[in-house]
Amino acid sequence: MQSNAKADWDERIAVRSDTDGTLELPELEPPKWVTAVGGVGQVTIDWATVAGAVGYVIMRGTGSQELEPVDHHSGDLLSVPSPPYVDTTCTPGTAYRYAVASVPEVTVHGRPGATVEATPLIADGNPPVVHLTVDAVAEGTELQRPWVPMIGSERLSQLLCKDLTGGREIGGELEDALRRMRDEIGVRTVRAHAIFHDDTHVFGAEGYDFSVVDAIYDKLLGMGLRPVVELGFMPRELASDPSKTVFEYGAIISPPRSYEEWYDLVRALVGHLVERYGLDEVLSWDFEVWNEANLEVFWSGTKAEWMHLYDVSAAAVKSVDERLAVGGPSSAAAGWVDDLLAHCAESGSPVDFVTTHTYGSPPLDVQASLDRHGFSEARILWTEWGVTPRHFNPINDSVFSGVFLLRGMRSAAGRVEALSYWVASDHFEELGRPPRFLHGGFGLQTVGGLAKPRFHAMSLLSRLGPAELPVAFEGDGGGSLVEAWASRDRDRIAVLVWNLTLDQSKAEGAAELTREVTLSFPGVDPSWQVSATWLAPGVGAGSGDLAAEAAALGVGEWPTDEQWVQLAERSQLRTAPVERTGEDLTIALQMPSAVLIELRPAV
Question: Is position 557 annotated as part of the catalytic site?
Answer without folding.
Answer: no
